[in-house]
Each structure stands twice: as C-alpha cells, then as structure tokens.
Amino acid sequence: MSTFPTALIPEFAQYLHSFHSVDNEIFLRLQQSAKQHHVPEIWISPDEARALQWIIKATQTKRVLEIGTLIGYSAMMMAYALPEDGKLITLEKESRFADIAQSFWNEAKLTKKIQVLVGSATETFQNIFETESSFDFVFIDADKKNYHLYFEYALQITRPHGIIALDNAFAFGQINQSQTDDISVKYIQECNKKIINDKRVFSVLLPVGDGLLLCTKLS
What we know:
About 40% of the residues lie in helices and about 20% in strands. The two termini are about 30 Å apart. It has eight helices and seven strands. Helix 4 links the parallel strand 1 and strand 2.
C-alpha cells in the first residue's frame, strides 16, 4: 500500500514514477472516486504495478489470488496482464470497497477475469481451500497484523514453484527503525525476518514501491 516508492532518493523516485506513469482514463476516474468516497489513497505505486504485471507475463501465470482489494487498482493491473483465460480472485473485508472496485472492473471489461470475495480473509480463505485449485501467484497487501497468517495460507494454496509476493516490505519507509512504536512496522519487521529464513521458500526483497518481498515455493 504505497502510491510512491520509498526506497529511492526523491529525484530517482520521481523519474521512476514518470517512467511508469499510469495515464489510463479508468484509473484516473478510480482515483477521483476514491477521494469522493473518502477511501485512503494507499494503493500500490505504478512501478510496483508494472513489476507485478512483468511477473505474471514472465511466468505465464494464469491463476492469481490477491489478499486485500481496496478499490481494485492492483487487481485491475494484474488482470490486464493475465491471458484471456486467466482468473484472479481477490479478497476484501469491506463491501463498500468491493462495490467501488467492481464498478471499475466492469468498465474495464475485466469482470470475466476477476472475482471478489467479501469478508474477513481468515474466513474467506476457508472457502478458497474448499472450492479452488492451486494458484500460480499470490499477492498479499492487507492488514499487517495478519501478514504471517496470510503467508501460511498462501503456502497451502500456491502450486510448487509458484510465487508469493508481499507488499510494504519496507514498512512505509520505516523498516530500519529499530526503536519504532508503530505496531504495523513491527509486524512487517517480524514477518520479513521469518520469511527470509523460511526454508520452504526462496526469497528476495526488491526495492520496488514500498518494498516487494518475493518468495518462490520450493515444493
């Protein structure tokens, strides 16, 4: 959840932002709608959206699971990169956010690719386990308190050698603050450490957006 890169000096961040700028008319209206509905402007940055699209295309991903929809920008960008027979399921706790997202997916003609499940992710995951086959790619961008739990769920539903990506690995630009009182930063610090040392995956932390932690499931 970061609209601007946090790992770069301002000049480089601005260049990257312009290099990967999004001038899609639908996205511009999505931004306006977010302001009108008082939705936090915390979607992923354009460079991170491009990175997610690159991963999907490079790995020939067909099935994506997203944890944390907000108003649907990241889902929309990933769906654009999917093949015509691709499918993206996204989990969103707030129905009002899901409704806004759905309206823009309809306009972008992406409804055949995207399905949103509304409710607590810890509950909707049970439905995923019971009704869905494995996913090629899982993108986690939700409440930081449960990141470790979502990662464990993702491991169960990701195919062998599939990819799990966690957003905000730089904790809103505060990942190196050892004395922080921000509980969300602490959650991310703990989660990063756990995953990097997890032998079930091979991981790399990329300075994209607010930090993108990529994990390949080894078996």
